[in-house]
Design brief:
Layout lengths: L2 H7 L7 H10 L7 E4 L6 H8 L4 E6 L2 H11 L6 E5 L11 H4 L2 E6 L9 E2 L2 H4 L6 E3 L21 E3 L3 E2 H12 E12 H5 L4 H10 E8 L14 E8 L9 E4 L15 H13 L6
Helix pairs in contact: 2-3, 2-10
The protein binds S-adenosylmethionine.
The site of S-adenosylmethionine has 23 residues, from strand 2.
Length: 283
């Protein structure tokens, strides 16, 4: 496959460093955390976390060329970094349980199905709850035998193919410890389309949603996508009965410039506002 079509097939578009910094800022990054990007590409999130002193960083990508570039960039951080060339939807292939285990922060920009990237392999699909969809609502209505108040699990319909970003969202959650943070860039369809309602229900069932931040179309400038995307900030687990999520629309991101007040004023002031507003459950 030619380089550009391979890159398109793998949905490779790199997150601008300023956006990676913004995301680390709003999750209130702590260098003591163990961090993973399960579709790390050239490793921009890992580099920014390493610059902030992270002690344990892991990255996964299926493309050896992108991973080689990540390896070079992260070389100065030595043993603190582990990189895996494998399918990010599969368990981490490491003999050490520390790296196979759960993470405090799962961050990144997974591949999107805009390029038709869907997963059909039943061996992969069976590892994900989101490869099936409830076909009726949970109920405590009397069932046919007339038993009152019996909770019945909704029946589910298995899908024969699922958009990769949906499985990746669940993969982020699988890798995250209870109480850990998830910060993920997703195409807006996941957050708005009718046929992804079951995904949003699943998010709310298993996580607390702190913020949804809409990114402008030019965020991934210079690459073959103008996908409309948003950043989702989650904590794994349910901590508050009632607490709304912050919604924010960013209009000006300068993808080629650093994360500073002069070149990316909107990004920097949004980050400082979100740092004040987002009060994560202490765990
Ligand atoms: C949108 S790019 C993002 C890369 C990086 N996280 C960033 O933000 O710059 C998605 C990455 O996922 C990788 N990828 C695609 N399918 C994958 C899979 N099944 N397993 C692991 N990585 C995959 C691609 O090679 C690409 O590097």
């Amino acid at each position: 496959m030619a380089k550009s079509s391979r890159s398109k097939a793998l949905a490779q578009f790199w997150t601008p460093p300023a956006v990676a910094e913004f995301m680390l800022e709003i999750v209130q990054f702590d260098p003591l955390w163990k961090v993973i990007d399960p579709a790390c590409g050239e490793g921009v999130f890992l580099q920014k976390a390493a610059e902030r002193g992270a002690g344990a960083l892991a990255g996964v990508d299926i493309d050896p060329n992108a991973l080689e570039r990540a390896k070079q960039a992260l070389h100065p951080y030595g043993e603190r970094v582990r990189l895996y060339c494998q399918d990010g939807l599969q368990p981490i292939d490491d003999p050490n349980p520390f790296w196979r285990g759960e993470y405090d922060l799962v961050i990144g920009n997974p591949p999107f199905a805009a390029t038709g990237y869907r997963i059909h392999d039943p061996r992969i699909l069976q590892r994900f709850e989101l490869s099936s969809e409830p076909i009726d609502e949970p109920t405590d209505e009397p069932d046919e035998q007339g038993q009152l108040f019996e909770y019945r699990e909704p029946r589910r319909r298995r899908k024969s193919a699922v958009a990769i970003e949906i499985l990746y969202l669940e993969r982020f959650s699988q890798l995250c410890r209870h109480g850990g943070r998830i910060c993920i860039i997703l195409p807006d369809g996941v957050l708005a389309n009718r046929n992804t309602r079951y995904v949003r229900q699943w998010i709310l069932q298993h996580h607390h949603v702190y913020a949804v931040i809409s990114l402008p179309r030019n965020t991934f400038k210079g690459v073959e996508t103008s996908a409309k995307t948003s950043i989702l900030v989650l904590q794994k687990g349910r901590f508050y009965e009632k607490r709304g999520a912050h919604m924010m629309i960013l209009e000006q991101v300068n993808p080629d410039a650093p994360f500073d007040r002069e070149s990316n004023p909107e990004l920097v002031s949004a980050a400082s506002a979100l740092r004040k507003w987002l009060q994560f459950a202490p765990c």
